[in-house]
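Hey,
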Amino acid sequence: MSRLLEWLENGLLITDGAWGTELQARGLEPGALPDTWNLTHPDRVEAVARAYVEAGSQVILTNTFRANRVAMEGDLDAINRAGVEISRRAAAGRALVFASIGPTGKMLMEGDLAPEQARDAFTAQAAALAGAGADALLIETMSDIEEARLAVAAARTTGLPVVVSFAFDSGKNRDRTMTGATPEAVAAAMVEAGADSVGANCGVGVEHAAPICRRLRAACDLPLWIKPNAGLPKIEGDAVRYGTSAESFASHFAALREAGASFLGGCCGSTPDFIRALVRARCGSS
Protein backbone atom coordinates (compact mmCIF):
# COMPACT_ATOMS: atom_id res chain seq x y z
CA MET A 1 0.00 0.00 0.00
CA SER A 2 1.32 3.47 -0.91
CA ARG A 3 1.97 6.05 1.81
CA LEU A 4 -0.85 8.18 0.42
CA LEU A 5 -3.37 5.36 0.79
CA GLU A 6 -2.06 4.56 4.26
CA TRP A 7 -2.74 8.14 5.32
CA LEU A 8 -6.27 7.87 3.89
CA GLU A 9 -6.98 4.49 5.47
CA ASN A 10 -9.31 6.04 8.05
CA GLY A 11 -11.09 8.28 5.59
CA LEU A 12 -11.01 11.80 4.20
CA LEU A 13 -8.32 14.16 5.50
CA ILE A 14 -8.88 17.87 6.17
CA THR A 15 -6.20 20.12 4.67
CA ASP A 16 -5.51 23.81 5.27
CA GLY A 17 -6.86 27.00 3.73
CA ALA A 18 -5.45 30.07 2.02
CA TRP A 19 -1.91 31.28 2.75
CA GLY A 20 -1.49 34.51 0.80
CA THR A 21 -4.33 36.39 2.47
CA GLU A 22 -3.26 35.12 5.90
CA LEU A 23 0.25 36.43 5.33
CA GLN A 24 -1.15 39.73 4.09
CA ALA A 25 -3.10 39.98 7.34
CA ARG A 26 0.28 39.73 9.07
CA GLY A 27 1.86 42.51 7.05
CA LEU A 28 2.80 41.11 3.63
CA GLU A 29 2.34 43.84 1.04
CA PRO A 30 -0.08 43.02 -1.81
CA GLY A 31 1.93 41.92 -4.84
CA ALA A 32 5.00 40.96 -2.79
CA LEU A 33 6.32 37.41 -3.05
CA PRO A 34 5.25 35.50 0.08
CA ASP A 35 8.01 32.90 -0.32
CA THR A 36 10.73 35.36 0.70
CA TRP A 37 9.18 35.60 4.16
CA ASN A 38 10.48 32.09 4.89
CA LEU A 39 13.86 33.78 5.40
CA THR A 40 12.87 37.28 6.52
CA HIS A 41 9.78 36.63 8.68
CA PRO A 42 9.73 32.91 9.53
CA ASP A 43 7.78 33.55 12.74
CA ARG A 44 4.85 35.04 10.82
CA VAL A 45 4.87 32.20 8.29
CA GLU A 46 4.92 29.68 11.13
CA ALA A 47 1.98 31.47 12.76
CA VAL A 48 -0.11 30.81 9.64
CA ALA A 49 0.83 27.14 9.53
CA ARG A 50 0.22 26.72 13.26
CA ALA A 51 -3.18 28.41 13.02
CA TYR A 52 -4.29 25.76 10.53
CA VAL A 53 -2.96 22.91 12.66
CA GLU A 54 -4.80 24.28 15.68
CA ALA A 55 -7.95 24.62 13.57
CA GLY A 56 -7.82 20.89 12.81
CA SER A 57 -5.90 20.58 9.53
CA GLN A 58 -4.46 17.10 9.12
CA VAL A 59 -2.39 18.23 6.13
CA ILE A 60 -0.72 21.63 5.82
CA LEU A 61 1.22 23.11 2.93
CA THR A 62 4.42 25.13 2.74
CA ASN A 63 4.99 28.75 1.77
CA THR A 64 6.86 27.78 -1.40
CA PHE A 65 4.31 28.22 -4.20
CA ARG A 66 6.49 30.54 -6.31
CA ALA A 67 9.92 29.31 -5.25
CA ASN A 68 11.13 28.03 -8.62
CA ARG A 69 13.89 29.66 -10.68
CA VAL A 70 11.53 30.70 -13.49
CA ALA A 71 8.97 32.43 -11.28
CA MET A 72 11.36 34.25 -8.93
CA GLU A 73 14.96 34.95 -8.04
CA GLY A 74 16.87 34.58 -4.79
CA ASP A 75 18.34 31.78 -2.70
CA LEU A 76 15.64 29.34 -3.72
CA ASP A 77 17.23 26.32 -2.09
CA ALA A 78 17.20 28.12 1.25
CA ILE A 79 13.67 29.45 0.71
CA ASN A 80 12.30 26.00 -0.12
CA ARG A 81 14.08 24.25 2.71
CA ALA A 82 13.00 26.89 5.19
CA GLY A 83 9.41 26.58 3.98
CA VAL A 84 9.35 22.87 4.82
CA GLU A 85 11.15 23.35 8.13
CA ILE A 86 8.68 26.06 9.19
CA SER A 87 5.63 23.91 8.41
CA ARG A 88 7.18 20.88 10.09
CA ARG A 89 7.73 22.89 13.27
CA ALA A 90 4.15 24.10 13.18
CA ALA A 91 2.82 20.61 12.47
CA ALA A 92 4.75 19.17 15.42
CA GLY A 93 3.72 15.66 14.43
CA ARG A 94 0.01 16.54 14.39
CA ALA A 95 -0.27 17.10 10.64
CA LEU A 96 1.40 15.96 7.44
CA VAL A 97 3.40 18.50 5.43
CA PHE A 98 2.75 18.57 1.67
CA ALA A 99 5.23 20.93 0.03
CA SER A 100 3.74 23.36 -2.49
CA ILE A 101 5.03 23.63 -6.06
CA GLY A 102 3.26 26.19 -8.25
CA PRO A 103 3.44 26.83 -11.99
CA THR A 104 6.30 28.73 -13.61
CA GLY A 105 4.04 31.56 -14.72
CA LYS A 106 5.21 31.12 -18.33
CA MET A 107 3.24 29.59 -21.19
CA LEU A 108 4.92 26.55 -22.75
CA MET A 109 2.42 26.43 -25.60
CA GLU A 110 3.25 30.04 -26.50
CA GLY A 111 6.97 29.36 -26.54
CA ASP A 112 7.61 31.63 -23.55
CA LEU A 113 9.62 28.86 -21.90
CA ALA A 114 11.43 25.76 -23.15
CA PRO A 115 10.28 22.46 -21.63
CA GLU A 116 13.81 21.78 -20.44
CA GLN A 117 13.83 25.02 -18.46
CA ALA A 118 10.57 24.17 -16.74
CA ARG A 119 11.73 20.62 -16.00
CA ASP A 120 15.01 21.82 -14.50
CA ALA A 121 13.25 24.42 -12.37
CA PHE A 122 10.78 21.87 -11.00
CA THR A 123 13.52 19.30 -10.41
CA ALA A 124 15.61 21.71 -8.36
CA GLN A 125 12.62 22.80 -6.28
CA ALA A 126 11.38 19.26 -5.69
CA ALA A 127 14.84 18.14 -4.57
CA ALA A 128 15.10 20.98 -2.04
CA LEU A 129 11.62 20.33 -0.64
CA ALA A 130 12.20 16.60 -0.36
CA GLY A 131 15.62 17.11 1.19
CA ALA A 132 14.09 19.26 3.92
CA GLY A 133 11.73 16.48 4.97
CA ALA A 134 8.38 17.06 3.25
CA ASP A 135 5.93 14.17 3.52
CA ALA A 136 4.66 14.65 -0.04
CA LEU A 137 4.82 17.12 -2.91
CA LEU A 138 1.79 19.08 -4.09
CA ILE A 139 1.89 20.54 -7.60
CA GLU A 140 -0.97 23.02 -7.50
CA THR A 141 -2.97 25.58 -9.46
CA MET A 142 -1.86 24.19 -12.80
CA SER A 143 -3.61 25.01 -16.07
CA ASP A 144 -1.39 23.43 -18.74
CA ILE A 145 -1.29 19.63 -18.89
CA GLU A 146 2.18 19.62 -20.45
CA GLU A 147 3.65 21.81 -17.73
CA ALA A 148 2.02 19.56 -15.13
CA ARG A 149 3.59 16.50 -16.80
CA LEU A 150 7.02 18.08 -16.46
CA ALA A 151 6.38 18.93 -12.81
CA VAL A 152 5.13 15.43 -12.00
CA ALA A 153 8.16 13.84 -13.67
CA ALA A 154 10.45 16.10 -11.64
CA ALA A 155 8.62 15.41 -8.39
CA ARG A 156 8.66 11.66 -8.91
CA THR A 157 12.47 11.65 -8.89
CA THR A 158 12.31 12.34 -5.14
CA GLY A 159 10.42 9.14 -4.33
CA LEU A 160 7.77 11.10 -2.39
CA PRO A 161 4.02 10.83 -3.08
CA VAL A 162 3.01 13.34 -5.75
CA VAL A 163 -0.32 15.20 -5.80
CA VAL A 164 -1.20 17.42 -8.77
CA SER A 165 -4.05 19.91 -8.75
CA PHE A 166 -5.54 22.08 -11.50
CA ALA A 167 -7.54 25.31 -11.47
CA PHE A 168 -10.82 24.96 -13.39
CA ASP A 169 -12.20 28.44 -14.03
CA SER A 170 -12.65 28.86 -17.79
CA GLY A 171 -15.05 27.93 -20.57
CA LYS A 172 -18.78 28.44 -20.85
CA ASN A 173 -19.48 26.27 -17.82
CA ARG A 174 -16.32 27.19 -15.88
CA ASP A 175 -15.24 23.55 -16.08
CA ARG A 176 -11.99 23.94 -18.00
CA THR A 177 -8.55 25.19 -17.15
CA MET A 178 -7.22 28.41 -18.66
CA THR A 179 -5.66 26.34 -21.48
CA GLY A 180 -8.92 24.48 -22.17
CA ALA A 181 -8.26 21.18 -20.38
CA THR A 182 -11.30 19.33 -19.03
CA PRO A 183 -11.39 17.30 -15.80
CA GLU A 184 -11.44 14.13 -17.90
CA ALA A 185 -8.36 15.15 -19.91
CA VAL A 186 -6.52 16.19 -16.77
CA ALA A 187 -7.30 12.94 -14.97
CA ALA A 188 -6.21 10.75 -17.90
CA ALA A 189 -2.97 12.69 -18.41
CA MET A 190 -2.00 12.68 -14.73
CA VAL A 191 -2.66 8.95 -14.37
CA GLU A 192 -0.38 8.40 -17.36
CA ALA A 193 2.22 10.77 -15.85
CA GLY A 194 2.35 8.70 -12.66
CA ALA A 195 0.74 11.09 -10.17
CA ASP A 196 -0.47 9.53 -6.92
CA SER A 197 -3.40 11.92 -6.57
CA VAL A 198 -5.16 14.46 -8.77
CA GLY A 199 -7.51 17.29 -7.96
CA ALA A 200 -8.77 20.83 -8.25
CA ASN A 201 -7.94 23.97 -6.31
CA CYS A 202 -8.56 27.69 -6.63
CA GLY A 203 -10.64 28.35 -9.77
CA VAL A 204 -14.32 28.92 -9.09
CA GLY A 205 -16.05 28.84 -5.72
CA VAL A 206 -16.98 25.94 -3.50
CA GLU A 207 -20.51 25.88 -4.92
CA HIS A 208 -19.08 24.60 -8.23
CA ALA A 209 -16.55 22.14 -6.81
CA ALA A 210 -18.69 18.99 -6.47
CA PRO A 211 -19.41 18.61 -10.22
CA ILE A 212 -15.69 18.94 -11.01
CA CYS A 213 -14.92 16.41 -8.28
CA ARG A 214 -17.47 13.92 -9.66
CA ARG A 215 -16.01 14.19 -13.15
CA LEU A 216 -12.49 13.61 -11.88
CA ARG A 217 -13.72 10.59 -9.90
CA ALA A 218 -15.48 9.14 -12.95
CA ALA A 219 -12.31 9.54 -15.02
CA CYS A 220 -9.82 7.96 -12.61
CA ASP A 221 -9.53 6.03 -9.36
CA LEU A 222 -6.79 8.13 -7.78
CA PRO A 223 -7.40 9.90 -4.44
CA LEU A 224 -8.82 13.36 -5.12
CA TRP A 225 -7.39 16.61 -3.72
CA ILE A 226 -10.10 19.30 -3.54
CA LYS A 227 -9.45 22.87 -2.28
CA PRO A 228 -12.02 25.30 -3.73
CA ASN A 229 -12.17 29.03 -3.19
CA ALA A 230 -14.38 30.51 -0.50
CA GLY A 231 -17.08 31.39 -3.02
CA LEU A 232 -16.81 33.20 -6.32
CA PRO A 233 -14.31 36.09 -6.29
CA LYS A 234 -15.65 39.64 -6.62
CA ILE A 235 -13.61 42.77 -7.30
CA GLU A 236 -14.36 45.57 -4.84
CA GLY A 237 -12.16 48.58 -5.51
CA ASP A 238 -8.56 47.37 -5.36
CA ALA A 239 -9.41 44.24 -3.39
CA VAL A 240 -10.76 40.78 -4.21
CA ARG A 241 -13.53 39.62 -1.88
CA TYR A 242 -14.98 36.17 -1.32
CA GLY A 243 -18.49 36.35 0.06
CA THR A 244 -18.99 32.82 1.37
CA SER A 245 -18.99 32.38 5.15
CA ALA A 246 -17.19 29.55 6.91
CA GLU A 247 -20.46 27.80 7.74
CA SER A 248 -21.76 28.16 4.18
CA PHE A 249 -18.50 26.78 2.86
CA ALA A 250 -18.67 23.80 5.21
CA SER A 251 -22.29 23.11 4.21
CA HIS A 252 -20.83 21.60 1.01
CA PHE A 253 -18.80 19.03 2.98
CA ALA A 254 -21.23 16.12 2.51
CA ALA A 255 -21.62 16.76 -1.23
CA LEU A 256 -17.86 16.94 -1.75
CA ARG A 257 -17.20 13.79 0.24
CA GLU A 258 -19.95 11.99 -1.69
CA ALA A 259 -18.43 13.28 -4.95
CA GLY A 260 -15.19 11.51 -4.07
CA ALA A 261 -12.93 14.00 -2.28
CA SER A 262 -10.11 12.32 -0.34
CA PHE A 263 -8.39 15.53 0.79
CA LEU A 264 -10.59 18.55 1.45
CA GLY A 265 -9.69 22.12 2.39
CA GLY A 266 -10.02 25.67 1.17
CA CYS A 267 -8.18 27.93 -1.23
CA CYS A 268 -8.43 31.69 -1.80
CA GLY A 269 -10.49 33.51 0.82
CA SER A 270 -10.60 30.63 3.29
CA THR A 271 -9.21 31.07 6.81
CA PRO A 272 -8.63 28.86 9.86
CA ASP A 273 -12.31 29.44 10.71
CA PHE A 274 -13.23 27.69 7.45
CA ILE A 275 -11.13 24.70 8.48
CA ARG A 276 -12.79 24.59 11.91
CA ALA A 277 -16.16 24.59 10.16
CA LEU A 278 -15.08 21.70 7.92
CA VAL A 279 -13.91 19.74 10.97
CA ARG A 280 -17.28 20.31 12.65
CA ALA A 281 -19.09 19.24 9.48
CA ARG A 282 -17.07 16.04 9.31
CA CYS A 283 -17.76 15.25 12.97
CA GLY A 284 -21.44 15.95 12.47
CA SER A 285 -21.75 13.64 9.46
CA SER A 286 -19.72 10.71 10.77
